[in-house]
Protein: Sorting nexin-17
Amino acid sequence: AYNIHVNGVLHCRVRYSQLLGLHEQLRKEYGANVVPAFPPKKIFTLTPAEVEQRREQLEKYMQAVRQDPTLGGSETFNSFLRKAQQETQQIPTEEVVLEVLLSNGQKVKVTILTSDQTEDVLEAVASKLDLPDELIGYFSLFLVRQAKDGAFSFVRKLQEFELPYVSVASLHDPEFRIILRKSYWDSSYDDDVMEHRVGLNLLYVQTVSDIEHGWILVNKEQHRQLKSLQEKVSKKEFIRLAQTLKYYGYLKFDPCVTDFPEKGCHVVVSAGNNELNFQVRLPNEQIKEGSFKVTRMRCWRVTSSVPMSNGPSGSSPGKSEVKLELAFEYLMSKDRLQWVTITSPQAIMLSICLQSMVDELMVKKSGGSIRKLFRRRANGALRRSDSQQAVKSPPLLDSPDASREPMAKLSSKLTSVSLRGISHSSSANDVGANDFHGNYAFEGIGDEDL
Structure:
């Protein structure tokens, strides 16, 4: 069997015959001219060199399928990954109670099937909370790691190709939880959410929590005003005041390391307002702050630089020794592009944040609205809107040869990604264009901006 890792975690194990079955199903549905070529069957037993060659061919095949907007977003492909995930973890289909946290620590218990996908679980939580259908698309489920003091750090946003119950259960660690949070960046969308009582309450508890965690900066006078609004239970006014504060609507990441402005600097990164904000501690202990706009990032990639264990136990984000890096190429001035690298276990979540900011910018640019980001179920499957031109992420395959410790080339395309040809980049060294997110929201700097 081949191990498929998604988001740095062992997602499932599949055999060549299962992948061949998927290929034949895709060909039947979409036609031979759309589906990429599949590694051919061999009559005789494969030599170790042929096994490795087949693994590489299968990985390329899976990447090609995942990058195709039609195939990668198809229910056939995603349900294949979900079913394989369930079979690999050997979790039978049965009714279970799943706890989903709200930002204030409140637990929402939903009765679901172990085989329910992310969208099913999100709908079950919304239904339990009485959140109306038209607001479901404004929220997402996130996998978080909760520390003993109640603070949590984000692992990733749960994706359409996974089963939330199985994803959490397979980690065998009570620190990993699922939390419901808003999943948009532009605070003007708060108005839509606040129109409804439940939407307002969810936004309110998230805002209070972010202030308590120190994610939103508050001075003494603002704190006094907020306290007074809290006592009056003026939730809308509380949110309106919070919207004016620094880092409102940002996600704050755990302290990590960056090579900007010099190697080995400790940094706290926050994502929000279409930027990555850096609070950097320089070697002389001086703290400097600056921001990198998403529209100035030409492309980015997520890579790992440590061999990944081939077994199931070595691949949970809690135990893994994989060193993850997010690197982005930034337009520093009119003719100067520079790579900036962040080394963080949360590199994948950072990449997902960047991509969702780009998606939102592109939808706004095309005159769309966030409500159109999600279409309700068509034939039992959720479809992304055409305006996003979603290109999906390739999972990764390990060699079935257990004695071999492969270098894990982690996927950089972990949510919908807009790719464009960037292999001509002289600054990309020897890394192929397939390792990159190209950024459709990238804008050159004009003379008037300098």
Remarks:
- The CA atoms of residues 43 and 50 lie 12 Å apart.
- Residues 48-67 form the longest helix (20 residues).
